[in-house]
Structures are given as C-alpha cells and as structure tokens.
Amino acid sequence: MTTEAQRGATMVAETELRPGALKLPAVLMQSITHIAPAIAALFFVQFIVGSAGLAMPIGYPIGVFFVLLTGLGLAELARAMPSAGGYYTYVARGVHPRAGFLVSWIYMLFSPTNAGPVLVFTGVVLAGQLGIVGDSITPFALGFMLVGATLVMGLQYRGIQFSSKVMVTLGVGELVIVTVLGLWGLLSPGPGGFNLSPLNPATFFAAPGFAIGILFTIQAMTGWEGAAPLGEESVNPRRIVPLAIVGSILILGLFLTVVTFGVFIGWGTDNVLDPAKGLAAATQLPGLILAERFWGSGSVLVLAAILSSTIAVVIAISNVSTRMWFKMGETGTLPKALAKVHPEYRTPTNAILAQWGLTLVWGLLLTLWLGPTDQFFFTGTYTGLGVLFIYVLGNLAVYRLYSTEYRSKYSPLRHLLIPLGSTVALVWVGYEVLIAIPAGNVGLAVPFAFAWVIGGVVVSLLLNKDLVSRAGESVSERPATVAEEAALQGEW
Q1: Structural domain boundaries of the chain?
Q2: How far is CA 264 from CA 147, 189, 279, 283, 294, in A?
Q3: 207-266 pLDDT, tens digit each
Q4: What is the CATH number of domain 20-469?
Q5: What is the mean pLDDT of residues 370-397?
C-alpha cells in the first residue's frame, strides 16, 4: 500500500497474539488501572504523611511532573516500535540487548511481583471491615489472594478483549467513587477548614522525608507505562499507545492530586499530625473513615472501589507481565514454552499460568516473612527504586534510538532535553531516598532492591550472546483484514 493509503487504513501489528484487538479506551484503561486509582489514592496516604508531614498533597503534583517527563520519552519509543516487550524491547534495541535483559530482570520487582502483595493487603483492609482481628487476619488475607489471583487468571485465559472489558468497567467505577470522596472532603473540611497551605512546595521540600514522599508518589503512579506491552494487540499502535501513555499520566495525576488533597482537607489540617487524631494514627484507611463520616452506610461504596481497584490492577499487572514473559519466550531469553498461544483465544497460556504461580508464591513468602501489612510497603519501596533504574535506561534508549536509527525524526527537545530532565529528576530522588533510608522492615527494601539489580547485572553478563541477540526485535505493521475490521465493530 502507498503511504497515503496506509494513513487512512486501520493498522495492526504482525504478531502471534490477537492483532488489533484493542481500541484506545481499553489501552488507556490498561495504564490507568495498572496505576490502581483507588489504591494509589487511599493506601499510601498514612505512609507519605509520616515522611512529608503537612506538605504531603504537594508531593503528588511534583511526582506527576517527574513521571510526565518520563512518559513523554516512552511515548516516543512506543511510536517508533510496537512491541509486547515494552521497556524490555526498547532498551534492548536502544542501549544493548543485555541492558534489555536487565530491564526485564528488574521488571520482576516492578510489575509481576506486585500482584500478590496488593491482594494480601486488600485482604487485610477487608478483614478490618468484617471485624476479623488477631491471628485470623493473615489466613484471611492469603485466602483472598488465592481467590483474586485465580479469578484474574481465568479472565486472562479467556482473552484480552474479555479481560479488558472487565478491567475498563471496574476502572471507571472506582474512578467515579473515589473522585466523589475527594471532592466531598474539599466541600466538608475538618478542623482547620479549607486552606491551600498543604500545596506550598517550600513546605514540602523542607520536610525531612520529602524524597521518600516523592518516591512513593512515583510508585503510586507506577503503571502508566502499562499500555506499551499491548502494542502488538492494539489497533493503530503507533498512535494509540503513545496517547494512552500520556493520557493516563495526565488523568491520574489530576485525580490523585484532587483526591489526596480532599482526604487531607476532609480530615482536617489541624489534626493531620496529632499523635491521637492524626492520619498516621488511624486504625483504618483514612479514606474509609471519611466515607463513614460523610455517607454512613454508603461508605461501602469506597470499599467496593478498593476491591474493584484491586481486581483491575491485578488484571493490568498480569497483562503487562504475561506479555513480557511471552516476548522473552518468543525471543529465546526465557524458555520457548512461555511463547505458547491459545489457538482460539490467542492468549499466552503458559505465561498466564507462570504469572499466577508467581503471584501466589511471592505473596505467601513476603507475608510469612514481614506480615500482611509491612509486606505491602516493603514492596512499594523496592518497586519505586526499581522503576527509577528502568526509567533512566528508557530515557537513554530514547536518545540513542532517535540520534541513530531514527535520526530523520530526531528532535533536540523530545529526544534529548526531556529525557535528560527526567533522568536528572529521577537520579536526584534516588539519591535523596538513599540518605534517608526508612527504618524497620520497609528499610530492608533498599538493600534488597540493590542486591536484585546487582544480581541482574551479573546474570545479564553471563548470558550466552545468542540468548539476548533477538531481545530488541519489534514487530511490523500491516493493514487490518476485513474480518479484523468487522471484529472491531462495537469493541472498546
């Protein structure tokens, strides 16, 4: 086809998966639900307040700005190369195949291992609402993890379109409920009334743990890059995926800023740091406490949003993880069995089973080691540090690719200055966190993350050259067939 004809055609990727199965809403919600709006807005509040104090709400817009810089770089990579491998493929192609393997190694700390801890912690929250206390909490939380992980495995096995519809429906519901809660807090302020003092950047940077606050803000936003691995299953992936990446950051950035500020104001700025009445002293999630105050029995809607967010984020995590396992199996970095695709549903069946097993094993091990609550914040810390490293390598890939292979499209602003600004910001956050390592079990996540990265470097150097030689392969595009066009009618 001519270039002019291709511009007017529906383009899909050449892939063993189901090409062109997803439109923009589904790909956008993949990133949004991977961020887990309700969890990001409600689960981290107490921890960030402990680090940033009264200035916690300003941490979100600062963190969102850092993420946006990084997201613009990933959008450029997705525009150049549709691939189910995401950062794995981009870094392998733009930096070095062994660096791509290192990204996939670190990714296991960032996405695949997060599903179990999220399910367990949601089980803890649900146990509290049901009045389950003491030694019964851990078995209940582990049981919730087993049920949730198995449910998601079944949805994924059935097909990307089916699981994405469930993900979109759950994601929209939680966004609406939690946004209303945040706005309600702004309209019904607690002691101290409505004021803008928590949004003063000077106050935030004066807080001793401000960098940890920003790190957890970035971690709360983690997931925006979840659209990239769906490039091989998206319609017009070079356009759809970049829009989903940037759009999810902007939408969730505004959402998190409004909701966390609303929770802060609704709680009351005079009471936020009070040893007895403060956010950190709350025995339940502050969002649930506020919902009970505002809506009485209607607070069950917030609990429903949390449960919805949990299932949606585990679907999104599994979408990203299984596509990465699939791509690594297809290129030979991992066993070829992971590249097996269901003949009817076109889903990576063995990769889905592997992710289910990892979810259960990792969630169980961390819970037995650290307990059902500390394991969640331990995971959040090592995830935040891990993504900093991946994002920096991704920024380098942007510059390398567009200054060499895609030189004709090179832009000093998009391919040098923005990735450089993002890298400086991310390195600064990492440095500040290292000099203010949190105490207790959460602090153990820092040496754990570094040990994992060092182990990945060693393994990547020892890998046979042939095993990583195909890591940077992307897929080509072709016009959709008449049958594929017809199948897309009415889809999201």
Answers
A1: 20-469
A2: 33, 9, 9, 16, 14
A3: 666 777 777 778 777 777 777 766 677 788 888 888 988 998 999 889 988 998 898 899
A4: 1.20.1740.10
A5: 89
